[in-house]
């Protein structure tokens, strides 16, 4: 972490914060690359650059797989006719194929990041880190909100 350039370190720590927000570490809670990239408001190239700085501890699974929705059958069929377990499986597969899943290779890095006595300034759960993360998330929400247009709102 000390080798990460200072100008990219905040973004790297925001990604680590996103990955540490699960209640517990589990590969069963793999998060999608596209979702995380959008949450950080990063392009695919910038997101890959951030991930490259964590390549020793971070695994991006399934990146670059093509996505073909026809393999799931009739995509126009209403969801109420599909079992909830099938929807969960479909959701995971779509998430994995749209950029891949991302997780830490080992729980020890997750433990390191959330323990302020071990990680010091790199701790993602410290009050300053949580404040910076909150402010970043709020700025991203406000940025995306600018692009929304509601019918009948009178705004052009």
In whole angstroms, the N-to-C terminal distance is 46 Å
What value does the Rg take, in angstroms? 18 Å
H and E order: HEHHEHEHHH
Q: Would you report the number of β strands?
A: 3
Question: What oligomeric state do these chains adopt?
Answer: single chain
Strand arrangement, largest sheet?
A: 1-3-2
Shape: globular
Strand content: 5-15%
Q: Give the uncertain stretches in residue-range form.
A: none
Query: Which structural class is indicated by helix and strand composition?
Result: mainly alpha
When the domains are counted, the total is: 1
Major sheet details: 3 strands, antiparallel
Give your account of this protein's structure.
- Keywords: Signal.
- By secondary structure, the protein is mostly helical.
- The chain has one domain.
- Helices cover about 45% and strands about 5% of the residues.
- It has 7 helices and 3 strands; from the N terminus they run H-E-H-H-E-H-E-H-H-H.
- The protein has helices spanning about 10-20, 35-40, 45-50, 85-95, 105-115, 115-120, 125-145; strands at about 30, 60, 100-105.
- The protein has a 3-stranded antiparallel sheet.
Summarize the helices and strands and which ones pair or pack.
Elements: H1 9-19, E1 31-32, H2 33-39, H3 44-52, E2 58-61, H4 84-97, E3 101-104, H5 107-114, H6 116-119, H7 127-145
Antiparallel strand pairs: 1-3, 2-3
Keywords: Signal
Signal peptide: 1-23
Quickly list its features:
single chain; 156 residues; mainly alpha; 3-stranded antiparallel beta sheet; 7 helices; signal
Structure, briefly:
By secondary structure, the protein is mainly alpha-helical.
